[in-house]
Prior knowledge:
single chain; alpha/beta; five-stranded mixed sheet; three-stranded parallel sheet; 15 helices; about 40% helix; disordered N terminus
Amino acid sequence: MGRRGLAAAFLFACALFGGPAAAQTSSASPTLDAVRARGQLVCGVHTGIAGFALPDSRGVWQGLDVDLCRGLAAAIFNDPAKLRLVPVSSSTRFTALGSGELDVLFRTSTQTMLRDTTLGLRHAVTYFFDGHGFMVRADSGVQRVAELRGATICLVQGTTNEQVTADYFRSINTPFQPVVFERTDQVAAALQAGRCDAFGTDASQLAATRASLPNPAQWSVLPERFSKEPYGAYVRRGDDNWFDIVRWYTTAIIEAEEQGVTAANAEAMRGSSANPNTRRLLGVTPELGQALKLDPLWAYNAIRAVGNYAEIYDRHMGPATPIGLPRGPNEQWTKGGLLYAWPMR
């Protein structure tokens, strides 16, 4: 066999038998290679909305989306701190991702057909189910959105909420006056100043905005919902391995809740569980990590760093938080919700 033949045989053997160690040093993903070379994941998040992404009193960013970024960093590096968060507005988020400024976008971004097919991006998997609603002053007397005839409605630029609001009022032949802002905190200030009669956005963000106002009891979130707003992480097209990593990492966080794996018990379950699904998830058997070209402990490291889906949700939006948002459709499918982990086998 000549030199070329020997080289080809060697490469084939490495691909076939290289195992986890080989997976650590090479990948089929330009994004993963760039992340590893940089030593840091760059993750796009909201400019500031409680529950999803907001600096705390110490200036440390907290929220569901922030924790998903931290968990992904842990899955790659076994270190959630190897992360740079980049706050991006609704109108710039997809441009920033497409231009390469970000590796991934976890930013309350609704999955839609046109976003998935026309922006050069892909959304990975739904991690939060929401719907468009409206918030008004509690003493306004408004009980239904149809009563907001001629009302001034605050909206955030570059969101699906602009179109949903316009479509609804057009469908009932009712005029309204939109007032568009770049950021949610600008909307909150406008509401307090009386510039808007209502705020139209996703229900979770209405609850978060309401909780942030000086007197939340002065505001009422109307019960109607006018759209489906499934949030998903976005990545650039053309990097299938990176797409797979983001998709199955997010699924692993949901799967961990289904299997009862938490940040506190992951180590014990890894050592004692006889459940084949749990053993795969926690890297006792290495095939999931090998398939993604990650360390066999990728999901275990992520769960140890940020917890399972329920832990993340309760930490930032649950009953013990000012938002106090019931899980509703974000409950597990076995409890009447829509959250459903795809089979990890």
